[in-house]
Design goal:
Four copies of one chain form a homotetramer. By secondary structure, chain A is α/β, with parallel strands linked by helices. Chain A contains ten helices and 13 strands. A seven-stranded mixed sheet of chain A has the order 8-9-7-10-13-12-11. The first copy, chain A, has a six-stranded parallel sheet with strand order 2-1-3-4-6-5, covered by helices on one side. In chain A, helix 1 crosses helix 10 and helix 6 packs parallel to helix 8. The radius of gyration of chain A is 20 Å and the shape is globular. At the B-D interface, helix 1 and strand 11 of B face helix 1 of D.
Chain lengths: 351, 351, 351, 351
Amino acid sequence: MPELTATAGACPAIRAAIAGGAGYVGGELLRLLIGHPLVEVVAATSTRLAGRRIDTVHPNLRGLCDLTFTAPDRLGEADVLLLALPHRQTMDVLPAMLGTAKHIVDLSADFRLRDPAVYAGYYGVPHTAPDLIGAFVPGLPERHRAELKDADLISVPGCMATAGILALGPLAHLLDGPVEIDARSGSSGAGAGAGEANLHAERSGAMRVFAPTSHRHQAEITQETGLAVRMSATGVEAVRGVQLLCHGTLAAGAGEANVRQAYRRAYQDEPFVRVVAKRRGNYRFPEPKILLGSNFCDVGFAVEPQGRRIVVIAALDNLVKGAAGAAVQCLNIRLGWPERLGLEFPGLHPN
Amino acid sequence: MPELTATAGACPAIRAAIAGGAGYVGGELLRLLIGHPLVEVVAATSTRLAGRRIDTVHPNLRGLCDLTFTAPDRLGEADVLLLALPHRQTMDVLPAMLGTAKHIVDLSADFRLRDPAVYAGYYGVPHTAPDLIGAFVPGLPERHRAELKDADLISVPGCMATAGILALGPLAHLLDGPVEIDARSGSSGAGAGAGEANLHAERSGAMRVFAPTSHRHQAEITQETGLAVRMSATGVEAVRGVQLLCHGTLAAGAGEANVRQAYRRAYQDEPFVRVVAKRRGNYRFPEPKILLGSNFCDVGFAVEPQGRRIVVIAALDNLVKGAAGAAVQCLNIRLGWPERLGLEFPGLHPN
Amino acid sequence: MPELTATAGACPAIRAAIAGGAGYVGGELLRLLIGHPLVEVVAATSTRLAGRRIDTVHPNLRGLCDLTFTAPDRLGEADVLLLALPHRQTMDVLPAMLGTAKHIVDLSADFRLRDPAVYAGYYGVPHTAPDLIGAFVPGLPERHRAELKDADLISVPGCMATAGILALGPLAHLLDGPVEIDARSGSSGAGAGAGEANLHAERSGAMRVFAPTSHRHQAEITQETGLAVRMSATGVEAVRGVQLLCHGTLAAGAGEANVRQAYRRAYQDEPFVRVVAKRRGNYRFPEPKILLGSNFCDVGFAVEPQGRRIVVIAALDNLVKGAAGAAVQCLNIRLGWPERLGLEFPGLHPN
Amino acid sequence: MPELTATAGACPAIRAAIAGGAGYVGGELLRLLIGHPLVEVVAATSTRLAGRRIDTVHPNLRGLCDLTFTAPDRLGEADVLLLALPHRQTMDVLPAMLGTAKHIVDLSADFRLRDPAVYAGYYGVPHTAPDLIGAFVPGLPERHRAELKDADLISVPGCMATAGILALGPLAHLLDGPVEIDARSGSSGAGAGAGEANLHAERSGAMRVFAPTSHRHQAEITQETGLAVRMSATGVEAVRGVQLLCHGTLAAGAGEANVRQAYRRAYQDEPFVRVVAKRRGNYRFPEPKILLGSNFCDVGFAVEPQGRRIVVIAALDNLVKGAAGAAVQCLNIRLGWPERLGLEFPGLHPN
């Protein structure tokens, strides 16, 4: 087939570089930005794979991308810099990168939590760039679209945090007491460099409770919604996909109609949030399976008959709406482009 | 290979018949009883498959079983009758079967709930044999072993009920307030006659929330433990396997040590319950994957640091400890045999 | 979210109708055509679901499609009619539809085989519209692009046939003797109405040899390439995806260089065929996993060292390049549009 | 539960040690021997895990085994020594172990091939103990039972070799010309120490052609059957399980009846080989899915109507009949025990 290089589009407006291009999030950034009509990918870094073709590790990009990986220390300037580097490492290298791009989107955890002490508690190390935290706008368009329009430092929330915030945020005033979140996650969340614990033979078909009483993404949900949440996390069979079951209690007087109304207000104009709460059907509640590759976050709920108990459900693709897709959506907003641009893929049924 | 008929063992003491032998639970009863050194399977019924070889639908029994299915109306007498018939149908046919076997073990839901009104609420029909309910002993050796020793009517609990009761029962006095159970279940739970909703293309990789606020097995847990429980259920990728995450609150003053002690007291002499709560490792909490085919129920827990929140986890194979294995274990008890007989298979790692 | 109806695009040039919209191929046609910038979907038929929203059975289209299913007898005119109806049924209903659309694309098997006797041999019934067969152009752009430019009746090949033809076609002059094809297929190939044989519990993890010595798609490969081929087919775990291993013998004097050259000539300008034959890497040969949702057919090969044996490998998504994507590609050609239009999705890694 | 140590059986006759107890084959040896009524496992070595409990890496053995891993240099004497060490390493360490046990069963590849030059060709290194090769009896009871009765050095064939030999061996005289074998293998074959290539995210749902034109197990098949065979190998989704499709040609005059007769003669008295070739049903040909955990090798075939082409199919669990189960079966023969002892598990349906 004819090699379609990343530069083959129609006069892209923006030159994008990716720091950390060899991982799964980096690969999704590449996929989405190469397919974006107004972006040209100019570089993607990898320490280990510098000089090798990008499509050797991201084989889905064969024929679509002629680039090779750039050594991190040879990364030049760009209009946008997207960082898909590990937690802890990002806060060390980001300060030196501030001048290299006009817009920076970070996909690590390092600039998500406002309070460095909370960060230290969840990530086990003191924050090394606490003064920078306040300069970041959360990469969550549904709640920070206005700020994102002129944000030059954007921090994309964690995949489970995005799901939890989108599910619970509109209902915060309707809920009474703490929320127990039961989160399930596919294996890609552990990353392309995951170790023996993630061997196919060990992980296939598993229901691995890896965070029984607390998961660090819960701190982001509390920060954003004000709700007390406690999250258990289990690794399940899927490669991609996050699903949250949020067990809460409705405030006295609140009922299903209030919940529907709250969601409608919050999401009726949102391009990537769908309320899914049907009476019947295999897909009557949010199901990550059909969101594979898409930028949707589906949210739904069920209220206990004759009761105040509510179960709120959210699902998304952890590498798209939970990471790279959210980054592209933020970029579209920042640059005044249509918000869906490059994010049109609707997901597959069946798959 | 030489055909080893079901009668090839060394003078079995007991003749067993299975009503409903073509389904998944029926198949597991056949597998376990054919391998049981003191049991001879004399008949297994199927309306649809009467006259066809049993190993055509249970291909794992090839070479081990020469029987053909018996039409239900031609089922004769036996020492033990095990019923693996659908809910609702069982209560209609059971009264007429009472005389046909000395010991009856029912695996349907029809004789699990003491209160016919509760049954009607969860199963949607009035109970048609309410007078018989009280004559059944729950097929849960860990809590009813003494009664099982001379029980002639045994009702095996639901798969999620067994997991929930074994996980929560010993802790009932340590818990404060209601328990939220997040149950995950493999696809075999829907049965061999499941419809399009369970096609591979629809179910593969799914996280299908099929019972968001209430699952009928919760009634059995409450009945047995006295705890207020509310169960959400999700169908996940595995074929077999049930896992429960039970979110509860410890009573003031109770802590991890009390929980360990309660479990130790309850299960230190139990052959099929293991307490699994390690500090590290992929299998540090109960994982259905390694229980495939085994009669174990693993229970474990984690207590929130500096808190009273506890997550109790249970896992089992829904067709074995959650059904056929439990039935065989009860039979062993009833007949005074070693409790592990015919149930020695430990499960596989990896699989 | 705002409901984006199928009509929300910018003045689509073409009105498309789908006969058989509730199946898996119909669903993919809907997905691709709704996302196509120059097509407006005006109707999709279903006998069973007439009047119900399309997104109830194709949940990935929620928010993207407001249509309901049309009863087959109420299907009106359109510019393009795509048929995703069952084999045998199509040849009965197609003659009456000839006047209802300017362009007709059939995705059934009924107009693929030139010789009605061969059709009768493989499909078990005499052909009921043999006079129409000759009017169809094969929906295989890589071999029939010129004819497709003015074809008004197009018949898309079978999924395994497309893979086999694209893999073997360019090498036909280099091969000596018959080719043994070992085909593996995901579960979606059995369709949305598949029965108990395709229950998740039965099919999960299976390697089901369902056609050991002959598969009907082999007739299409022979018809198109002139090669004698015999195909075994096995159902494997994936939902989507077809992979063929073609075991052949190189003619005397032919070697790896000739094969590479033949593929280069055939495919260097093809937008949807990639030659994948690397020395190392997990994805060094065609792998259906990374083609999920994409319109690519990857072909590759390995030649036995010091020998004439060659293994040719092909992979594609059976519902896209093996069905709906090929149909859209043909439509793009027929209407003079860019061939990639609406088919840009590159597939996912990992998934 | 009460800890049942490995010594809890009724006066085992034989003390067994395992060299290489931490891998997947080592784990299966442990599972089978711990469950064997006449064997006491006295030690299992691991360099990396010496001193740690065995059930930390083989969690299915919890409650069944109290042993810790032994450092290799501290391995003492035993009645039987089973080696589950890597290829190449085994031939270096085995000579020094000859005196430490009366019976030695090797599960590596190092003593399978009679000709050291063939070994060097397939394994890439010269054989370092060529004089020992001739002393080993193949651990294939179906073809070497008589020799095994007094063999003190036994070499278990490769998993695919066992499948291929059992499928093709009885037909060697009926086949004409070379046989093309298409082998499919689950992920456990790569071992517990497999690297990033076997991460769940990479391997899940894959059809990875890892040996397109030649696989080293083919040499064992040729050695044992005299047939020229060429094997392609593909890694598929299952964790366990090997399936071979062997494409051959029947000699003139040979037909289905001859094949059936040949299999009957070969296997009518075999405890672990079943001929599976039915006219209908999901499991009409050998299917690894239902063999999980069992010691069966199922073989079947289909002959092309009006032709001489035959497809022979074999399936087994690569860690049981393809490794540890075969070792135990050989041991049973060598020690004069019933051949099925400790190998009774029939496999599961569904799973």
